[in-house]
User: Fold this.
Amino acid sequence: MTPHMPRAALTIALTGALIGGAAFAAPAQALPSGRAQAAAPSAPASSTPPASALKPAVGATTDQNGFEIDANGVLLRYTGSASDITIPGKATAIADEALRGTTAERITVPATVRTIGDRAFADAQQLKALVFEDTADHPSQLTAIGAEAAANTPALTEVAVPSKAASLGEGAFADSGITRLSLPDSLTSIPARLVKNSSLLTEAVVGNAVTEIGEAAFSAAHSLKGLSVRQADGSTAPGFPSSLVTIGQEAFNATGLGSVDLPASVRTIGDAAFNAIERLSHVGLNEGLVSIGSSAFRTTGITEIVIPDSVTTVGSSAFSECSALTSAHIGRGVEAGQLSDAFTSSRQLSGFTVAPDNASYEAVDGVLYSKDHTSLVVYPAGKGSGTTYTVLDETTRIESGAFNSAPLKGVVLPSSLRSIGDWAFSGSYLESLVLPKAFETFGECAFSGMPSLARVDLGGTKTIGEQAFLASHALQEVDFRADLGRLTTIGAYAFAETGLVSAVLPDSVTSLGDGAFTRSTELKEVHLGSGLTEVGARVFTGTTALASLSVDPSNPVLSLDGSVLYQQGNDGSHLVYAALAAPLPAYSVRPGTAQIDEAAFKGHATLREVVVPEGVKAIGAQAFAGIHELTDVALPDSLEEVSDAFAGTQVETIEFGARIRTIEEAAFDGGLPVRMIVRGGKDGTFASPEEWVPNHTASAFFGEGMKRIAYTHGNFPQTLVVPSTLEELVLTTGLLTAEQLAEAHVYVAADRDSAAWSVAKAAVEKAGLDPASHLHRYVDPALSLSSPAIDRAGDASKVQVKAGESVEVTATLTGGVPDGREARFVEVAPDGTETVVSDWAAMGAAQPSPAPDANAGAEPGAQAPADEAGAQSGSDQAQSGAGQAQSGAGQAQSGSDQATPADQAAPAQSAASDQAAGAADGPAADGDAPASSAAFTWVPSVDGASLRVEARDATFRVVTGVLGSALPPAPEPGEGQWVQDAGGWWYRFADGTYPRGQALVIDGETYRFDQSGHARTGWVRDGGYWFHHGASGAMSTGWLVDGGAWYYLVPGWGAMAIGWVEDGGSWYYMDPSGRMSTGWVSDGGYWYYLGASGAMATGWVSDGGYWYYLDASGHMVTGWQQIDGKWYEFGPSGALKG
Assistant:
């Protein structure tokens, strides 16, 4: 026996068990066996035993047979294992779940038991017989059985509920294998879900005093052919109790009833009460019935229906989809507005009759109209196959579902008609449709799924409802009646999945709903009128043939950039859609764009490269999904979160900006990019996707500010670079071969004693790799150019070249990773034309050259803490192979607001300063990857050309250098004037033409215009160089602060400078992205220190608690140095010793 608990604890446990079977649930408590008693849901009032039956528990014992019964006779639990259980006669109640899940095959309940709790025998999978003792000598005292008492008992076959039981809980025998159920006369209300899903039930005997059959009481009892009602003499008769008033919703749903004749007492039939009974062929409704619920007899086999005069309400779809129904009579009492949708898709229905004294309805030649004929309510779906029907002249409205599935070939609508309800003609066989000139609106799905409808004249329609013509695949031609100018609104998915070839929207249309033409695969041409100002999401998604998209020039909100549609919103311009069939191998999103909308490019057949400009803050769901040709993507700093925009693509190279917060797992759902660059983050998180076809990725670079990087689906890149801000790294290897793992390398942009290094080391070890050979230190890459031409000119930007004259140039790349280093050379003509004169080719080992002095090559070895803003090093903003090079355009200041850095608060310290001194030792040797170089002999094709040199390593991060002259000044135009529209400002010449895709000097200021003719603002790439145009469109020059970073735009030219810049007697260093550097910078094998203003320091500098000395050239010195007559020793990191 189980040891007794202390009395106090026992009382709590038993109270919980008993109260759970009463009216509410008790919290879980400890039981003597140590198990927890699960709290039971509140039982309905009908299953609650009288309060007098519940006595405080005073103790419990477990007998040798496993019955634990308290002093009040409550069976708390059974711990035995007998297959045939007879509950002891001393038991007066069975607690909640007392025998739940028992393995017994037979249970006998003694006559002494008065109440059975909730789920007392539930889940007893082997229980075949539940026997209640109820004899003349020992009459059963059972009055109440709890909710789901014997639910989920598939082997149970027969139950006879004792005669005194007046209360059954909901679902008492649901999901059981019961075949015969006998309920006592004392039961007047059959509970909800009593035998729901008991598909083997063939006989149910009930008393004649039953007044209510609860919700879903017999639902899905497929074998039940009807009820048997116990008569006064003890015999039974088929039918329903003579006292029955209410039949609850779904009461007999999906049963096997074949005939129903309701007694005179019935007043209410609930929703779906007899739904989905295909063998139900006869229904006799009683006089006195008041209400028939929605779908009450839907999908039954009835052949006719007579609605009694007493009925006032009939729910929607009450007799819908009755395939054998041929006639229907409407009684006197049915009120107006009750029969719309009541008979939809009953395709054999040939006509209606209506009681002559019905005040609301009248049948005209079998068609159901309102009494005054202003409303056509139902056209019988089995009437007039292949003919044309003429609607009565005075009709103003066709009600919902009126012609649903009608076999008519045509319909003639009167001039009086003003509206058509939801689903009115859905599934009908009309071949054409002409709406009257004064018509106004039709509702949701009014003409959806019509297999033969080919032509539509919308007449005077003002509003087209949602999904109005959805999936009417034969529809090829719609006349939107621009001549009437009445149409204003086209609802969501109105023409989705149609066969439309062309859609010319009149100027009167102001609103186009979500998905209005989506998946209309034959649609080739669309014109949007001048009045359209509201365009929903995914309007043209999946219109794979759409090649021609036009917009009225006077539209104030919409504009086109070639085949790409833009919409001006309150937050800026939105890229709405790119025509899927229009050739678009490469695309640069228009500057000033704030958002790329949902599915904008989804499934585009030809798009391979896309550049997204600074200022884009959001990319909608699946914007680029399913583009199998997409290879290169460049994203701006302004984009901080990416969800499933690239799902199902096969992107080769993608570059994110420097402010990433989240790249969700779904971003590349289906497959990782081959190469990925994340320039930086703001507490950034990356999660790899589950891949449909595993693809071993080549590289991934994560810049400063990224903290959590998780490759959780068995695949991670061959080359992985992680930042010093790393806090979590997960590398899983389930999809990688041994050979692939052997080639995997992880680089950390931090010292070996840093937290980031420790995190990366732990992840590498967990992946089964040896950190000694697979974990390395990372240093930012830098590109330097050398050439005799530079030596002669004194500066790379001042080199002047002539056509045909050879120019020798050598590009040297340091830092980064040692693998995959390549260079290419691009000639940029004075007119901006770019020509690749030497494509990407492997770089060789750099040739050593004598150092100018003994200080060359030293670098600070310790790292100072990064600034709180998490600003990035300049090289973290390097261009990628996808072409992105600039950020921050959304906050740029125009040239009129320029000032030198010294005049402003210092920008946030770059991560380059993190390499300032603080310890004597230098970096790990693996951070000093050997330099690589590429030599090239350039023969310019035109005078004044320049040469752009690009270099990259295995990460595909591109660093750039430029050799050559400035672009020539932009030409001055003839007289003209500025004009503003929804797309921005444009310049109109006196002859009405305007500049497109070019630069012009207007009133002394240089402007650049996009292909649509609008003046560009923000960062603009032209001729291989970056320029900036302020909010006015005027080109900026000199110093510019943008997004917290400083840039230098060459005066007299405007091109963004990179490398060293001399201004006002001071030298400044602009990193490869053009940002002014501060703190420590390594260039050409020397370390420099740039102060808070960006100016290069010379002499003594204190940083991070250490002293450094920089010579007159700004070079940091190391070793012994004589300064002002005194000798000082500096360590390898440059820090002063002692």
In short: The first helix runs from residue 7 to 21.
